[in-house]
Amino acid sequence: MSEPLLSVEDLWVRFPTRNGVVEAVRGISFSVGRERVGIVGESGSGKSMTGRSILRLIRSPGQMEAKHITFKGQNLLDLSERQMRGIRGHRISMVMQDPKFSLNPVMTIGKQIVEVLRLHAKVSRKQAIVSALEMLEAVQIRDPERVFNAYPHELSGGMGQRVMIAMMLITDPELLIADEPTSALDVTVQMRVLAIMDKLVQERGMGLIFVSHDLNLVSSFCDRIIIMYAGRIVETCLAKDLHKATHPYTRGLLNALPRLDAPAERLDALQREESWKQERSVAAHG
Amino acid sequence: MADVAVTERVDASSKPADLAVSIDKLNVYFGEGDDRFQAVKNFTLNVPRGASVGIVGESGSGKSTVLRAVTGLLADWDGAINIDGEPVGSNRTKAFYRKIQMVFQDPYASLHPRHTIDRVLSEPLRLHGIPDVNERVLKALDDVGLGESFRFRYPHQLSGGQRQRVAVARALMLEPEILLLDEPTSALDVSVQAEILNLFTDLRERHNLTYIMVSHDLAVVAHMCEEVAVMSQGHMMELLSVEDLREGKSSNAYTQELIRASEGYDEQFFDD
Question: Is B267 among the domain residues?
């Protein structure tokens, strides 16, 4: 494989609390090329923190530490806060779970997209409006003009999420981090949003980190899967080989899912073992 | 006198099954005047005693609204709702709530943050003037797999799965026959979901419960129920058996789409 787009080495995220330090991410290493990488885990596994720390978005008092986070040969940890702003939203974008909390409620959709574009690229207002409308069309919004002039509360959840994706993609990022981008959506809308991201990866050669709790979805959508538990990577595999996963945690997750094609009297409850927390993190390089 | 006896017998035999819940031509509305919106349209569903029936559909399809109308959380409805053969009116009686209880989706929002588990569980008993509060609370905790040690904790001291167990225990305090389950596991991790679904299976057997379960997850409904109603935009599209659902035997285009979408990402989904 060619030089990866992003490579992360020995990443730690810690939160000091009254009862001692909580380690949300504990020494993980992975890399992402021009492919779709899924990070799966249950709540508290550190998957979202991993996504956020790539963009150095861990708020104080949280602390992050890594040997390096290299994006196209540049160590993001060496950049100033100002230089980081040139990366965020421009070369690496992030889509969050809920459009309701990520869009400005008192600003029209169009204005918000134009603002993003003009912050990162030298374009005229007129041209920015044209690109914004084009982008809305690209994410399959039927009536781009109406949406352009609408406020966030006038849109449905699925529409809002597509707007978010349009906003994140208008700067033509090389890497997109999507944190549970479809879990608030209905299945058919979810399918549409995934199809849009899929197309972008294939046509623009964008890298995608897809953070999700949904094993089925990730295994059908991504190329490679990273499975996290208690801040570590317990296993990594090609998406198509997920059913051959060997780690007891991954097996437990798979068996805990009710299946439409295989009826079962009872579901297997996952028996967690203390040793999983102590195991060394697996390096997930492509 | 003989005539009466005959009519009674005819009545009894003309009832094909012992229905725990029967909903007939239910319409539910929101808002008033020009803003009046009909969320459920002409919905009919019969649930035999001891059965478990699922309602699936996308958000806004009216599936939760049906449950909320049955349980009396929404007032603006017409049509007929019968529980145990008895019609329910606009005001629900105490006796009604001893027959039917509901478990909600979000265990973080459905428990009072400043009430202990003990208070949450004993409140329905006090409201209904039921004695032996102490024993009943302990029994309920045991029933849902939580120990005595949880009794005087607050909701924030519990995990999501433990909270949902408390919500289930609360629903069972009055020993109802029917449980309405509104997306009871969709806020939980898959491993916790498995535990809660197993709990529902055990409780149903132990207490001979009747379930109506609303979910957007076809696999969860198929696991829990024998029959599934598919809803879209307030209408019931189809009522089909779980076997047919599992085998994809549905003539309804919308049901087909739901089944296909539940199988994961599919590149060709929009091609045909």
Answer: no
